[in-house]
Each structure stands twice: as structure tokens, then as C-alpha cells.
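Progress note, project year one: complex with iron/sulfur cluster.
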Amino acid sequence: MTVVAMGMPAVRTGQPSMDGRPDSPLLIDRFGRVARDLRVSITEKCSLRCTYCMPEEGLPPIPADELLTAGEIVRLVTLAAHELGVREVRFTGGEPLMRRDLEKIIAGCRAELPDIPIAMTTNGVGLEHRARNLVAAGLNRINVSLDTVDRDGFARLTRRDRLDSVLAGIRTARDAGLAPIKINAVLMRDTLAGAADLLQWCIDERCELRFIEEMPLDADHEWARANMITAEELLAQLGRHFTLTEVGRDDPAAPAERWLVNGGPATVGIIASVTRKFCGDCDRTRLTADGRIRSCLFSDQEYDVRAALRSGAGDAEIAGLWRGAMWNKWAGHGIDAAGFVPPERTMGAIGG
Ligand code: SAM
Ligand code: SF4
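Model obtained:
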């Protein structure tokens, strides 16, 4: 059965087609990929309003009874690791720090899964007050999103004057044992000139910087292929300040291509999701804050695992739903194709 709500992708509540699927417990798809990296969005709320992601007023709130609870998240993450071969989990949003029970979610997953790396992608606002407790709960890694170290530029881009809090959060997290911290940066025309300063700041603070090409997942639908900062343009900009030597990818499923900066050991990465897409090596599966499985950022289909969970489905039934959702994953996004239509859910509503 398919349910379509205004502004949302088609939500499937029945069992997805398993046509042609070999018998495997893993999250395989028709194109030979295996999803082992689970991204869990835990909220749509955010303390910032990055122009390439959120609308000025924020996303429409998810009603409390539609949000997955801490216990439900722990159950689904545990099931994904035990039954489906997931090997790493990353919490994201929205902004994961907006959930007061984040430490409880992480501690719950850690208790069930002592050996699975638990990571978080965060904007870093307020992180300085929680980094130590998050580490104590079992968090292993973080990526902090920081697009510029220029205070005015940061305030324009995020529509909030919170740069100091983000920088303090990064330093506290590093000192709390989360090093090496990865910094994610999405560049816009306005922040391109500050890319070299950002890279120098990351080198000085022993953080690993990775630039991400802007994707058509902004709430204001202002993304335009002709305006986005491509990997090529960024490399030319950085090349005016640093000597860059290409070293490639750590492994095929790692989206970032890396360059040594001034001969190393510092490196900079670029995730060229648009101009050098890597869908053929994608190993991700996604769970939204309202309990839908998505096989791709750009999917137009979602599978309602919350309904299954709350109607008393056992682990085997939920695992079957998840396997089916991933079996039907498409080959890749078609951003460069004529007639490309961006997904209804924006980045903040999916979880990047
Ligand atoms: N609030 C957290 C943060 O900013 O890190 C987690 C959620 S955010 C949606 C996750 C990542 O998605 C961030 O690194 C952000 O820069 C990236 N992102 C958001 N919108 C994007 C877009 N349109 N294109 C590419 N990356 C985007
Ligand atoms: Fe919030 Fe992260 Fe989106 Fe920025 S990128 S608006 S911090 S969810």
C-alpha cells in the first residue's frame, strides 16, 4: 500500500518487492551494493538555519507521537547491526544535540553493541557542554559542520551568530577524546574566498577538513547547477594558497577524495557528490526521525518502519521490510539528468 501526503514522498506500508532477490541477511540491492553504514536522523529541529539546508523559519515540527523514541531507535539500530550486517551508525538530523535524550540513545546503542563505531554529525552549537558526557555514553567519532571561520560570513550563512560556540565545541570535543575530528564544509559563492582560511584553521586545530559539493536538497529550492561551487573550482581556489597533491580515496566506499596539503601530513578532502558522483560504491541506508527507511538521499519512496514497530512486528518482520527497502534502491541520483526533480524532503528532514 502507498500513502502520499502533501509535500512528502510516497510512503510504503506493505512489504516491498523481493523479486529476484537472493537469500541473504545483508542489505543488498539489485546493483551489487551492500549497505553497512546506517545514518539515523533523530530530529528535524536545528539551532542554525543554513541557507543550503533549512528554511528561515525551520522545518515543520514532527508531532511528538510521530518521532521515534530513544527506545525505538536503540531497537532499530541494534536490529540493523545484529540482523542486517550494519557495521557503523551515525546520528544526525536536523541537529542531534537538540535532543535531550541523545546521551541516552547513544548509551543504549553502546550497551547493545559494544563493538560498533558510533558517530555523530553535528553543527557543534552547545557541544562544549555535552562532549564529555557523549564520550562517556559511548560516542566514538564526530563530524562538525563548519563552513567558514569568518564571524560575519558564518552569521549570514547560518542566519545565527554562533561561530564562537561551534569553535569552543570543536576544541572541547577534541580534548574529550574525539580526535581526529572531521570538519564538513559546504561552500557557497559568499564563502568560497574564505576556504583557505578555513583549511588553515583546521590544520592548526588538528582537524580533518572535507568540503562537500552543495546538493539540490535546500528547503528554499534555490540550488542551481550553474551556481554551485564545484570540486574543480574549489581546487583552483585552494591551489592559490597551498600545494595540493592528490592521494585519492581511503577505500572505494569512502566518499571523500583526498589531497596532501603542502606535502602533508595534513590533508584536505572533497566529496564531489554532484560532479564526480559515487553512487556505484554507496554503502548507506537511512532512517528518518519519524521512522521511515530511505535507501538514498534522493529517494522518492520511503518505508514506514515506525508503523510496523508500533503494530507489534517482530525483528524478523522488520528486518524483511528493511531488506526489501534496500533491494529496491535505485542505481543513483540523476542530478545531472534532464528533468531531474529534487526530493520533497530536504537535507535537514532526511539527515545528511
Ligand atoms: N545539523 C548537523 C550538521 O549540520 O552537521 C547534522 C545534519 S546536516 C543536514 C548534515 C550535513 O549535511 C552537514 O554537514 C551539512 O553541511 C550537510 N548539508 C546540508 N545541506 C546540504 C546540501 N544542500 N548539500 C550538501 N550538503 C548539505
Ligand atoms: Fe541545521 Fe545542519 Fe541543516 Fe545547518 S546543515 S541547518 S546545522 S541541519
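The two ends are 28 Å apart (CA to CA).
The domain at 26-350 is CATH 3.20.20.70 (TIM Barrel).
No further modelling is planned for this target in the current period.
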